[in-house]
Amino acid sequence: MKFVDEYRDADVAQKYVQEITKITTKPWTIMEICGGQTHSIVKYGIDRLLPPEITLIHGPGCPVCVTPIELIDCALKIASLPNIIFCSFGDMLRVPGSDKDLLSVKASGGDVRIVYSPLDSLKIAQDNPNKEVVFFAVGFETTTPATSMAAYQAKQQGIENFSLLVSHVLVPPAMEALLSSPNCVVQGFLAAGHVCTVMGYEAYQPIAQKYKVPIVVTGFEPIDVLQGIYRCIQQLETGKFDCENQYVRSVTSEGNPLAQQVIQAVFEVVPRRWRGIGEIGESGLGLRPEYARYDALKRFERELSTVTPSTTPQVCISGQIMQGYKKPNDCPAFGSQCTPENPLGAPMVSSEGACAAYYRYRNHSETVPC
To answer: 99 and 130: one domain?
Structure first.
């Protein structure tokens, strides 16, 4: 595949490591915001190639992981109702709610279907006019345009047996929440390249200036990540705090205006609870009033009135992991009580979760230096 070999070239990677080592004179802590970057870092051992002065910590950039447990419970309740077809991306099926997951609902007879796009769910609604079809709309800005288009087409075509259980979240407010915490240890960010492909990166420059942290929009291959780290260290060592774009083959400063237009037509900014973190103001997207009839929380309000708030098991420290305070194998349950087959927290089961990356690519009995 084009680009894969050149962005996984071991010799080029070693040269970047040498250059990073050469310019690093102080300890620095950098957070990669995206779970895809986390998996690349752990899979290729990038953090172990870097000089000991550089610490990489893992952010809340896994939308599956930050979907609040009470919304998972709402999904479980809706999916268990008669006459429902509940549609979801595959990585949501094993995410634990209070006492089970969507895969358990499917095993018990619920009509739970994996789809690859919200538009697949809309087609299912068209093909099943006597059923209520609900799509679990989870994701950062990357997946929001497709959800927006599904709602837009449902309205245009007058499809009334279709609704969305929305848990879309926004990256910049989460970064600000982390930086404004008194316990923040982040000195620089690798921003998510796919999010910026849609939204651009103009919103990141004020954050870099306000909190005096360099932000480098970064791709997902090993060379991308190393280039992002190199640029971040360059800024830190010279006292600069700008937003740079490493991922130039995909990202422009303005992003994709057409995608942004459809998002703005369907959604408005709302507060959103993040699993393990809490509520972050203006960090989510909710359907605009003109699309309210496609809101599953409103459509099934009576049935959901019995859903009570719950919490992640106390032994699980996924919230601390997603805020960069801990590494996955700092958790006492990691690899023993908590495994991909029996996850206590979402980061162990999600394809972008930090715990899943450590479990898959590293001996989970070893200690990883922080």
So the answer is: yes
Exposure string (b/e) for 311-343, b if CB count within 10 Å is 16 or more?
Answer: ebeeebbbbbbbbbbbbbbebebbbeebbeeeb
Residue 367 is assigned to a structural domain of this protein: no
The reply to whether 242 and 350 lie within a common domain is no
Report the pLDDT value the prediction gives residue 29, as an integer from 0 to 100: 98
Low-confidence stretches of the chain (pLDDT < 50) are: 1, 365-370
CB neighbour list of residue 191: distance below 8 Å, 6 or more residues apart:
33, 34, 171, 175, 201, 204, 215, 216, 217, 218, 243
Residue 368 lies in a domain: no
- Does 366 fall in a domain? no
Which of 299, 196, 179 is closest to 246 using CA atoms?
196
Please indicate, yes or no, whether the overall pTM of this predicted structure exceeds 0.85. yes
Residues 6+ apart with CB under 8 A from 13: 44, 49, 222, 223, 226
- Residue carrying the six token digits 């305070």: 325
pLDDT at 2: 55
Within a domain: residue 334?
A: yes
Q: Which pLDDT score, from 0 to 100, does residue 3 have?
A: 60
Domain that residue 20 falls in:
1-313
Structure confidence at residue 6 (pLDDT): 83
Contact 347, 32 (CB under 8 A): no
Tell me the Cα Rg of the chain.
21
